[in-house]
């Protein structure tokens, strides 16, 4: 060929190129043969041919371009073609040569052998290139596709793509377009860097403006253009129709109107993304060649959509590679990525928004500087994006995770930003489309806000509680609708549930009003926008929206912290009542973040601190008013600013009911993991149970704290219940479970050593779950946990050694059961005034008595009889329906039986100490246990002490039943009437147990009248509530007391017969049990 004339040579090359194009168009097998021919030499020749512009060789270039178009369009051989050395630079050069910067036609001399339409082949190759560039920019899920470029790319190829991205295109003089390099080397002509051999030149420029951080509009060059789908067409079988379809797959002309930089830059960005995806080596080359991050930044700011998309992918891949160092441009990347995501969401381009956010997420995770930059400039952009993409879960999830990184690491949201975000965060928590990941991130962020802002965040926590209660009520209504209409003969339990729901609905409305009123008082009543009223988004959520609309702008309501705290107290109480016996609702409120609220209510005194701030402001108000009045010449005192008018919020009651709800929830395994992982919380619970926290002396709170710790740390699957000194109960799946202490069982003297999981090293409870390292904020059940550094330290403070605990294992359980209108503590307190003459209406007979004074089971009995664990039960009882619904005797017995068995009571000897109706409840418990074959509890019940128990009915029960239209007796009162067959049946059952010497009985009888109604002039109406013949069951020992019904269980001193006889009875039972053991 060297001796042939130039025209013949050009013609031969043209026909060879045309033949290769026709073969490539035939079928997949022939395309594979072309690619493998000569070890890739044929493909190299085609690539070199399209990269060279000859004045008389346009046809050859066009036919080579046509052949490459078919090869690149075939996914089976594409990677082999594009993976050839210098393939990408040659194609970039071809794009420059085939896509002139202006549309003026260039007339070239055509060979007589030229049989090709030069523009068609070039257009086909450009179409094939743009097809692969744009085909994977529609969905983030497709990012997992196999890269089309090799993992061992040459650095000069990567460098060529980087320079095209940075500068926008290639510029060569007309005189430089020949076959030989300027310096005789083999380097690629037109590349403006020193690459391996030879000096080459690459001229680059962009004609469009770069998008800066705050630009609001994008110019998506490719957004309105159709993309040929070559993949589907190339999958056709070899046939004439298939061949025709393949030819149509690379239809020329679709991208001809694009300037060369709008084709070259997208292709270069696509190549860079594929190289980065292909291997770690390629990513290290990209990082080395783009150390300043300018190429990635240029791609992120590019006007073309595909360049932004691939630039975001490159940024993400480089940031995800932990082996690569972070460059100084990451913060700029983060700003640009957030801007891209925001603009894309504005144009409803969700796939681009998701891709940009995926890279943005990694940037803020890895770079502190990026987090600072976004904190300063990007929060508003994130907030706007979140509001635009409410229906797009993936975008919301990325934003939630990014905000979590921003607020839970080194930086913290300001109070104003916290208030602005609160509405979005709570909508993420309670939104129906929210995923577990979104919800958990939002809960973590809200938890950090509450911790960082302290009392200033009360509005947010209160709004959270209001939405939580509203969501639970909605769930209750939904379940009741699905359940259909209730039968006419509704059970008492159903009535109680309905009563609780109705009360909770009223409480929820009050809490919503309280949130809005407190917001109005603190922030004013300007509510035009989030900028002027940061809580506008929060207060626009239900159930806050209604009261917010009614908030008067000119007349803020008179509302203080005490009112707000009271509303919170009622809400926690109502929420607890609804969820107490419903495990599904307990799971739901846990998922909705109630643990964060409970932790805050227990560990912090936000309401007290806010009240102190309020009091200080009130004390300062007169001074400012005096100044104003002295200037105006008149005084205008305000009662609202009087320091004496500032009330103390009921913080102790809030803490008590929060502790109760926590105890209920601590029976859930996922909640146990949360608490066990929180060092601070565990330490607080231990100190609280031991009475070491100043200002917290409430016996119920202390009991709840200990019960929670026992549920968490002594309830592992260990095969033996060391607290109860016996085998644990078994779950349905056969696994061993430890004792469960619910809210109806109170632990007396929770600071004693026998309540501390003897023989169990709690620091190793979660060792197998790697809790000694930092917890991930979500466990396997997607529930919130608090990050800690070492759980072992948390439990070490309440760990008891084996040697010390063995001698302190209690030998007996003593369970106190109160009576009608009593309580787990107040029934057993020694009243300062034992005359019981202060009582008013019959419902108040035990309201005054027992509020103050000595709690004798905890202060006397625990010291005189240390061999026993002491419990006290709680159940709801009312004399009439006016004071609330209560369960009948049988249902109360069944419920308490379940609680007792779950707590392991019955695994050792048990003695019940009862007052009034409590004795009947114990009878019902034992009767039910026998019927349910729970022989452990029945056989181990060795004694019962009855204080004024109406074994055969009570005159007090006869009174409301005779006046039913007025007093409306409760269901449990109806069963206490004289002559009740049910009472006879229970007494016969107990008599049978006593006859078999299974248990001993001690009964105390009242001998004085009890005042129940106070008339005019202080004259009290008195009656004998339990007659002597009813107080004695007909077997066992009996003691006659010179006292009334209320004080029969309240000994005046340790020498009082009501105490000494009971103590002697217990000692006798212990001695009998010890002899039996021997």
From TrEMBL:
Annotated spans, Disordered: 624-649
Biased composition (Low complexity): 635-649
Signal peptide: none
InterPro entries: AB_hydrolase_fold, ARM-like, ARM-type_fold
SUPFAM superfamilies: alpha/beta-Hydrolases, ARM repeat
Protein name per Swiss-Prot or TrEMBL: Alpha/beta-Hydrolases superfamily protein isoform 1
């Amino acid at each position: 060929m060297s001796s042939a004339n130039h025209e013949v040579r050009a013609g031969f090359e043209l026909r060879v190129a045309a033949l290769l194009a026709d073969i490539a168009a035939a079928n997949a097998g022939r395309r594979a043969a072309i690619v493998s021919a000569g070890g890739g030499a044929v493909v190299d020749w085609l690539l070199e041919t399209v990269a060279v512009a000859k004045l008389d060789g346009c046809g050859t270039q066009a036919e080579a371009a046509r052949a490459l178009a078919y090869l690149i369009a075939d996914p089976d051989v594409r990677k082999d073609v594009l993976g050839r050395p210098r393939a990408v630079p040659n194609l970039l050069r071809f794009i420059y040569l085939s896509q002139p910067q202006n549309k003026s036609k260039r007339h070239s001399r055509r060979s007589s052998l030229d049989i090709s339409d030069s523009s068609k082949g070039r257009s086909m190759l450009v179409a094939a290139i743009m097809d692969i560039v744009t085909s994977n920019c529609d969905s983030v899920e497709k990012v997992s596709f196999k890269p089309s470029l090799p993992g061992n790319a040459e650095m000069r190829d990567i460098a060529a793509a980087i320079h095209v991205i940075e500068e926008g295109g290639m510029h060569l003089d007309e005189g430089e377009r020949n076959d030989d390099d300027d310096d005789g080397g083999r380097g690629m002509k037109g590349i403006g860097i020193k690459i391996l051999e030879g000096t080459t030149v690459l001229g680059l420029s962009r004609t469009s403006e770069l998008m800066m951080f705050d630009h609001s509009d994008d110019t998506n060059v490719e957004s309105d253009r159709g993309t040929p789908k070559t993949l589907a067409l190339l999958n056709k079988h070899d046939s004439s129709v298939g061949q025709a379809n393949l030819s149509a797959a690379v239809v020329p002309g679709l991208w001809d109107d694009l300037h060369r930089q709008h084709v070259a830059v997208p292709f270069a960005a696509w190549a860079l993304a594929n190289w980065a995806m292909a291997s770690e080596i390629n990513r290290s080359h990209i990082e080395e060649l783009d150390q300043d991050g300018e190429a990635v930044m240029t791609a992120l700011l590019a006007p073309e959509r595909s360049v932004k998309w691939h630039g975001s992918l490159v940024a993400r891949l480089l940031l995800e590679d932990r082996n690569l160092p972070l460059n100084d441009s990451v913060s700029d990347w983060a700003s640009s990525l957030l801007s891209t995501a925001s603009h894309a969401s504005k144009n409803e381009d969700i796939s681009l928004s998701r891709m940009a956010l995926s890279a943005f997420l990694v940037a803020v995770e890895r770079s502190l500087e990026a987090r600072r930059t976004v904190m300063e400039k990007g929060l508003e952009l994130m907030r706007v994006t979140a509001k635009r993409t409410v229906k797009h879960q993936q975008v919301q999830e990325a934003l939630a995770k990014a905000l979590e990184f921003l607020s839970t690491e080194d930086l913290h949201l300001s109070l104003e930003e916290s208030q602005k975000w609160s509405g979005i965060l709570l909508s993420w928590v309670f939104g129906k489309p929210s995923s577990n990941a979104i919800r958990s991130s939002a809960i973590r962020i809200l938890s950090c806000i509450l911790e960082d802002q302290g009392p200033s965040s009360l509005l947010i926590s209160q709004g959270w509680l209001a939405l939580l209660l509203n969501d639970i009520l909605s769930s209750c209504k939904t379940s009741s609708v699905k359940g259909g209409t209730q039968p006419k003969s509704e059970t008492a339990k159903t009535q109680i549930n309905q009563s609780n729901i109705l009360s909770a609905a009223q409480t929820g409305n009050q809490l919503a009003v309280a949130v809005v009123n407190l917001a109005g008082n603190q922030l004013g009543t300007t509510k035009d926008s989030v900028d002027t009223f940061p809580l506008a988004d929060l207060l626009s959520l239900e159930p806050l929206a209604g009261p917010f609309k009614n908030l008067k702008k000119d007349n803020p309501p008179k509302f203080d912290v005490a009112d707000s705290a009271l509303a919170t107290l009622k809400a926690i109480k109502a929420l607890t009542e609804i969820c107490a016996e419903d495990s599904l609702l307990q799971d739901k409120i846990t998922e909705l973040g109630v643990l964060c609220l409970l932790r805050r209510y227990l560990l912090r005194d936000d309401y007290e601190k806010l009240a102190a701030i309020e009091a200080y402001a009130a004390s300062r108000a007169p001074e400012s008013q005096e100044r104003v009045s002295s200037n105006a010449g008149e005084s205008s005192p305000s009662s609202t600013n009087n320091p004496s008018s500032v009330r103390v919020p009921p913080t102790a009651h809030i803490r008590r009911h929060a502790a109760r709800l926590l105890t209920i929830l601590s029976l859930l395994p996922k909640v146990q993991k949360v608490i066990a992982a929180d060092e601070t919380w565990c330490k607080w619970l231990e100190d609280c149970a031991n009475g070491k926290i100043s200002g917290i002396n409430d016996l119920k709170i202390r009991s709840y704290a200990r019960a929670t710790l026992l549920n968490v740390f002594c309830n592992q699957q260990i095969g033996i219940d060391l607290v109860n000194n016996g085998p644990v109960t078994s779950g349905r799946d056969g696994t061993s479970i430890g004792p469960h202490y619910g809210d109806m069982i109170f632990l007396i003297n929770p600071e004693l050593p026998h309540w501390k999981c003897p023989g169990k090293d709690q620091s190793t409870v979660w060792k197998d779950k790697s809790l000694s390292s930092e917890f991930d904020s979500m466990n396997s059940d997607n529930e919130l946990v608090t990050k800690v550094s070492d759980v072992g330290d948390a439990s070490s403070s309440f760990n008891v050694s084996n040697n010390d605990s063995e001698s302190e294992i209690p030998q007996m359980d003593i369970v106190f059961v109160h009576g009608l209108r009593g309580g787990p503590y107040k029934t057993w307190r020694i009243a300062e005034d034992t005359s019981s003459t202060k009582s008013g209406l019959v419902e108040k007979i035990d309201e005054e008595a027992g509020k103050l004074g000595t709690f004798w089971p905890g202060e006397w009995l625990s010291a005189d009889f240390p061999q026993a664990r002491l419990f006290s039960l709680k159940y709801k009882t009312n004399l009439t329906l006016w004071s609330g619904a209560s369960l009948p005797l049988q249902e109360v017995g069944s419920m308490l039986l379940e609680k007792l068995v779950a707590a392991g009571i019955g695994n050792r000897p048990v003695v019940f100490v009862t007052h009034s109706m409590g004795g009947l409840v114990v009878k019902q418990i034992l009767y039910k246990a026998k019927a349910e074959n729970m022989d452990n509890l029945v056989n181990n019940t060795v004694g019962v002490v009855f204080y004024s128990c109406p074994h055969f009915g009570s005159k007090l029960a006869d009174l409301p039943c005779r006046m039913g239209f007025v007093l409306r007796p409760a269901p449990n009162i109806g069963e206490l009437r004289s002559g009740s067959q049910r009472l006879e049946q229970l007494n016969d059952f107990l008599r049978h147990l006593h006859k078999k010497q299974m248990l001993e009985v001690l009964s105390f009888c009242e001998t004085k009248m009890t005042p129940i109604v106070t008339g005019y002039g202080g004259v009290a109406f008195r009656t004998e509530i339990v007659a002597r013949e009813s107080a004695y069951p007909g077997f066992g020992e009996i003691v006659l007391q010179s006292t009334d019904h209320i004080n029969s269980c309240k000994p005046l001193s340790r020498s009082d017969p009501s105490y000494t006889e009971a103590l002697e009875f217990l000692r006798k039972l212990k001695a009998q049990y010890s002899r039996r053991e021997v």
